């Protein structure tokens, strides 16, 4: 019996190993399973869990899960995701051998491969991260770098994506930090595949934040501000209502009655990035939304998102996503909806 009952859909295989964190397997099934065409309701992915040997797989909790599929599923997959497992915390040889090496040998060239948390150790041992930027949980970054010196370990980001470049046989390789960043990574892949509208709908359905930039810091000193301390939340809310106009750091700080220095420090503690990085991210997201959901000319999209000119929007979108506004719209533009300007 084939692992994937709907081969026409994008096929996602989750590789379960003994000692896995069950939540990480659940994240993949929940998010990719929720993804459907926003207006058609047609599922976009088929997701299966596989193991080196079909049967019971022990979890890090006090139960096991029954896995029906073996490593053959990896050969059929368009995306392979490797969650973490307790074995990742045991002494590492730095090599992939035995059944795990045989399983990875089944993966077809061009397959997108991703890891959640310490699953990055498996990708590194397979040689997939050599020369590439990658991350894992901040507690394990130093160990990953020690045993895999060819990997460019970045301990300060939520997730990474490294395309194959000119190697036509290679697919994208992605890594993520802890459990929560696995959610960010899955939403990032869905957004890459089908655009912001689909990814945002998945986020709404599962009641999670629709987008956290991969470059955001893993460790935020004060993710929930102390009640008696001033927050930067009001300034952020105000900025989102005024993205179409030039916004300065001094102006944002004034919304919270803070000095620029205090506001900048407080903002980074709460958001994990600088105010200007956050503002650029929000403008990109606004532009993506307008390109997907309206027929507005590119110059108008640029103005409404705060980029000023179409040339500026093209430059920023190319840097962030590697595509032009027209190419992005051509890929992710949904069918016209009643009341949509155009």
Task: Describe the model.
The chain has three domains: 197 residues, 3-Layer(aba) Sandwich (Rossmann fold), CATH 3.40.50; 40 residues; 56 residues, Orthogonal Bundle (Arc Repressor Mutant, subunit A). The longest helix has 19 residues. The chain has 14 helices and ten strands. The strands form three sheets. It has a six-stranded mixed sheet. The protein has a two-stranded antiparallel sheet with strand order 3-4. Helix 6 packs antiparallel against helix 7 and helix 12 crosses helix 13. The protein has 342 residues and is α/β, with parallel strands linked by helices. Helices cover 41% and strands 12% of the residues.
Write the layout of secondary structure elements.
Blueprint: E1 10-16, H1 22-34, E2 45-51, E3 55-58, E4 64-67, H2 72-76, E5 79-82, H3 98-105, E6 112-115, H4 120-125, E7 133-134, H5 141-147, E8 152-153, E9 159-162, E10 173-176, H6 179-194, H7 196-206, H8 233-240, H9 249-255, H10 260-271, H11 275-293, H12 298-305, H13 310-321, H14 325-332
Helix pairs in contact: 1-6, 1-7, 6-7, 9-10, 11-12, 12-13
Short structural summary:
With 342 residues, the protein is an alpha/beta fold. The protein has 3 domains: 10-206, Rossmann fold; 233-272; 277-332, Arc Repressor Mutant, subunit A (Orthogonal Bundle), CATH 1.10.10.60.
